[in-house]
Automatic annotation (TrEMBL):
It holds the Pfam family Peptidase_M24. InterPro entries: Creatin/AminoP/Spt16_N (IPR029149), Creatinase/aminopeptidase-like (IPR036005), Pept_M24 (IPR000994), Pept_M24B (IPR033740), Peptidase_M24_C (IPR032416), X-Pro_aminopeptidase_P (IPR050422). This is Peptidase, M24 family. Keywords: Hydrolase. Residues 127-346 form the Peptidase M24 domain.
Length: 416
């Protein structure tokens, strides 16, 4: 109605399933179904392979007033929209659909209105995501405990570690799989930001240096994404420095308070300043939006230092938006570090200056104290880390074995 259009052609899978409040498993790691949607002011047409819908879902969709049509009928359907004003996002719509529109159609090309709505999680979704992150934190704590206990005592490769962590997640109640393929990277391999271990590149983890693992899960309660860099033994001064800076950067961004109206572009400097002041940087965004039992990368919220128009991730940060916070340092041929938590935007105080906003952690996974160089941290950094670790222990330890809980207590101890 706002755009004064009569029909909306929707092709992005996450938007379709979110709008209908359904999920599927047609795409690996992304709980979506292959489909198209055509929405008018009165009707909703879902173009899908009907065989993938069970009777319960069909009944649910019927109650919503959804008309189910064969998947490939979308092309004929758009061809029958002659004379209508059509809302669609051309960058997200295939050429065949656009070509089938008639010359009498007027196209209103803008971001799908579902995208910003989907990004704002409601209170129920946020509470559920907190539950998902407790489960994920348990899996991660068990994994780090296992790795620390066994490194140097048995042969562990990048793929061994990846598979063990994936299995720990699968054992968590309500787990529906991974939210993306696990990045398991040791030593110089971690300097490749999106490295993927293969049988050919599969490095053996040695009791020295740093190991980076970036991973996440899909749960009935939500989507997770977390990165930890783990010391496997003796580390170099550069490794400790870079690791500590990534931790400081992550904590400082998560602790920032800002006036409503800020975008990720405004806040990015908070995360990069500890690195930039030492002539360091990382060549990826500081944060990306995360879906609710949906895609682990979601627009339109994000945090980066410069505009990347095609990313469409520079909106005003709204209450309920979930974003990653993941600064890192990558030294080619040597090592890579990254520390990543998910944070949710929420309202802080409101006064004569306006509405202030802040972030709250969703991720609760210990940060490796063994690789930390405290000389780089100020009192506020230490306070932030201690407060975070206190919450990690309180939230995660009840779900661990006695031995694991004792290990977690030691590895979330307050530092000074």
């Amino acid at each position: 109605k706002k755009e004064k259009t009569t029909v909306h052609v929707l092709t992005t899978l996450d938007d379709i399933v979110w709008l209908l409040n359904i999920r599927g498993n047609d795409v690996v790691c992304n709980p979506v179904v292959l489909s198209y949607a055509l929405v008018t002011l009165e009707r909703f047409y879902l173009f899908i392979n009907e065989a993938v819908l069970d009777s319960e879902v069909k009944s649910y969709l019927k109650e919503l007033g959804v008309t189910i049509r064969p998947y490939n009928d979308i092309y004929d359907a758009v061809g029958q929209l002659k004379g209508q004003k059509v809302l669609l996002e051309t960058a997200k719509t295939n050429y065949a659909i656009i070509s089938n529109l008639d010359e009498t159609n007027t196209i209103v090309d803008c971001m799908n209105p579902t995208a910003p709505a989907k990004a704002v999680k409601n209170p129920v979704e946020i509470e559920n995501m907190k539950k998902a992150h407790i489960k994920d934190g348990v899996a991660m704590a068990k994994f780090i405990f296992w790795l620390k206990k066994n490194i140097g005592k048995q042969t562990i490769t990048e793929l061994d570690a990846e598979h063990y962590l994936d299995q720990l997640r699968a054992e968590q109640e309500g787990n529906l799989g991974l939210s993306f393929h696990t990045i398991s990277a040791y030593g110089a391999n971690a300097a490749m930001c999106h490295y993927s271990a293969t049988p050919e590149s599969n490095a053996v983890l040695e009791p020295k240096g740093l190991y980076l693992v970036d991973s996440g899960g899909q749960y009935y309660e939500g989507t997770t994404d977390v990165t930890r860099t783990i010391s496997l033994g003796e580390t170099t001064q550069a490794e400790r420095e870079h690791f500590t800076l990534s931790v400081i950067s992550m904590l400082r961004l998560a602790a920032v308070k800002f006036l409503y109206g800020c975008r990720g572009l405004t806040l990015d400097y908070v995360a990069r300043e500890p690195l930039w002041s030492r002539g360091l940087n990382f060549d990826h965004g500081t944060g990306h939006g995360v879906g609710y039992l949906l895609n682990v990368h979601e627009r339109p919220n994000g945090i980066r230092w410069r505009m990347v128009p095609e990313r469409q991730d520079n909106c005003v940060l709204e209450e309920g938006m979930v974003t990653s916070d993941e600064p890192g340092v990558y030294i080619e041929g040597s090592h890579g570090v990254r520390t990543e938590n998910l944070i949710v935007c929420k309202k802080a105080e409101k006064n004569e200056y306006g509405q202030f906003m802040e972030f709250e952690f969703l991720t609760f996974v210990p940060i490796d104290l063994d690789a930390l160089d405290q000389s780089l941290m100020n009192e506020r950094d230490v306070e932030l880390l201690n407060n975070y670790h206190r919450q990690v222990y309180e939230k995660i330890s009840p779900y661990l074995t006695e031995e694991e809980a004792e290990w977690l207590k030691e590895n979330t101890r307050a530092i000074s």
